[in-house]
UniProtKB/TrEMBL annotation:
It comes from Pacificimonas flava. Keywords: Membrane, Transmembrane, Transmembrane helix. This is Uncharacterized protein. The chain crosses the membrane at residues 7-32, 72-98. The keyword Transmembrane applies.
C-alpha cells in the first residue's frame, strides 16, 4: 500500500508542476499580448484574456460553473490575468512541494519494492 500511495503523491506533484508550467506560459503570453497591443491594458481580466487569446480553454469556465458556485467562477474570471496566473504558479509549486515531501516521508517496505 505504501508504494501505491507514494506513487500517487508523486503523480499529484508532477501534475502540479505541469500545471504550474502551463500557467507560467499563460502568464508570459498575457504579458506579451499586453506589451504588443496598446489596446490591452495591464488589468486585462482572465475572462478577456482567455476568450480573446486562448479560446480553446474557454470551456473551463463552464466546467467551473459545474463544480463551484457561479459567483466564485465569475469572481475568478474577473481577476486580472497578470495576478491570477502567477498566483496559480505559486500554488502549484507549493502543492507539488508538499506532495513530494509527503511522498518522501512514506517508508516503502522492502516487500513493496520487490512488487
Amino acid at each position: 500500500m505504501g508504494k501505491k500511495l507514494r506513487l500517487f503523491l508523486i503523480l499529484l506533484a508532477w501534475s502540479g508542476a505541469i500545471g504550474g508550467m502551463i500557467d507560467g506560459l499563460i502568464t508570459l503570453y498575457a504579458a506579451w499580448e499586453i506589451a504588443k497591443d496598446a489596446n490591452i491594458g495591464i488589468g486585462v481580466t482572465v475572462e478577456t484574456h482567455i476568450s480573446m487569446h486562448l479560446p480553446i480553454l474557454y470551456f473551463l469556465k463552464e466546467v467551473g460553473y459545474a463544480l463551484a458556485p457561479n459567483a466564485l467562477i465569475d469572481w475568478i474570471f474577473a481577476l486580472p490575468a497578470l495576478l491570477y496566473f502567477p498566483f496559480r504558479v505559486l500554488v502549484n509549486l507549493l502543492f507539488g512541494w508538499i506532495m513530494l515531501k509527503w511522498a518522501n516521508r512514506l517508508e516503502v517496505a522492502e516487500g513493496d519494492l520487490a512488487a
